Amino acid sequence: MLHCLLVVAFALSAVATAAAQSTRVPIVRDAEIEALLADYAEPIMRVAGVKRNRTEIVLVNQRSFNAFVSGRKIFINVGAIVQAETPNEIIGVIAHEVGHLAGGHQDRLRQQIDRAQTIAAVTTVLGVGAAIAGGVSGNRQAAQAGGGIAAGGVEAAQRGLMSYRRSEELAADRAAVDYLNRTGQSAKGLLTTFVRFQRDISLIADRINPYKISHPLPRERLSALETIARQSPHFDKTDSAALQRRHDRARAKILAYVFGPGAVDDAFRDAPNSQAARYGKAISTFLYGSPRDAVPMIDRLIAESPSDPYLHEMKGEVLLRAQDAQGAVNAFSRAVQLTNGNAPTIQVALGHALVLAGGEANLRRAIGELEVAITLDTANTRAYQHLAMAYGRLGADGEAELATAEANFHAGRYDEARRFAARAKRRFERGAPQWLRADDIQRFRVPR
């Protein structure tokens, strides 16, 4: 199931900007789509020398076609997956973003930003000084020239920074083609993306100042890459049928959850009996119709693919909405088993179902499942919320308050986190592990 959370947004570049950092946008957690993107990224990261266990792919709940990197995270809009008709298009996008990571572009871009700020500051000081001197001497032309020096210095610094960023984008494009060639994949999807961008800006392209943008114009990127991309022996290679099915299912799921009723039917009008179309139809029925009507639709899909964990996960979500908590426990348990415990998002859903099912045995099992999920996904706020509920129903108030403090902490609600941490500390012996964790939360201050 697509779970929406709020996180700090990042700019469309290799490094976040202050303006973007002050904005909060929703991200999406979904075990099925995260696993698909991880499979897309693994061979690319391997040949690029980027460690997979230190790099996270994050889904952003935005409908536009966009992707970017910040820190060790690659952010991909759900809209990009929906608009990409083949896996190869998203793989090309991931290859480009990995090019930024492997090239160390973020660190160097920060250095360029510092340099640009220094240039702007120095020229501003010199210009203001010249303007003041001209004003004091009564030389009006000198005063105006001083103002021109200040403005021109800032303009030059900005243009220099934009030029550097455009060069980084082209370098990441070339790196992407290299990674795709080395993994035996086509760069055609990457070119398709640039064609899409060119089409989207075609009406305003003549009004864009090429010296004041951070990315090269799409036609420049196409011109730079098309020849080398077509020289690859893999250029006409297509994605496997199995991978295409997984991609289409991800698109159908996003369409149902994000784009609303009817979106799946519109997108799969030419293939209404495909697995993806039926999957999306079942999800749409669950979300906008009757959950109980969706159960047999999911069951038919499970009968075709009984070892698919994500179908069992979806059945669990449907049964939760249908108020069959124990049925949901059974479905989620099967999904966790089929993923060998490597899908903490599903394990969190199982913990939630166990809490709703109630009873001491279920509550204690919920705590165990949620604690394991947290070790794999330490910042999952939903896990802490369900854990707090389980502890609370068992009368373990200290643990419940600590879990609530953790949930608020990882959601960025630091005042609330400190308040619950203070309450939790009073319930534990000083120096106990729980007391120490609560104390850490209470003492935390946001870095400036």
TrEMBL record:
Write the record's keywords in alphabetical order, separated by commas: Hydrolase, Metal-binding, Metalloprotease, Protease, Signal, Zinc
Tell me the domain of life. Bacteria
Q: Which residues form the signal peptide?
A: 1-20
Q: Which SUPFAM superfamilies match?
A: TPR-like
Q: Which GO terms describe its molecular function?
A: metal ion binding; metalloendopeptidase activity
The transmembrane residues are none
Q: Which GO terms describe its biological process?
A: proteolysis involved in protein catabolic process
PANTHER family noted in UniProt: METALLOENDOPEPTIDASE OMA1, METALLOENDOPEPTIDASE OMA1, MITOCHONDRIAL
What protein am I looking at? M48 family peptidase
**Cofactor(s) the protein needs:** Zn(2+)
Q: Which organism is it from?
A: Roseitalea porphyridii
Record has Protease as a keyword: yes
What Gene Ontology cellular-component terms does the record carry? membrane
Domain Peptidase M48 intervals: 38-228
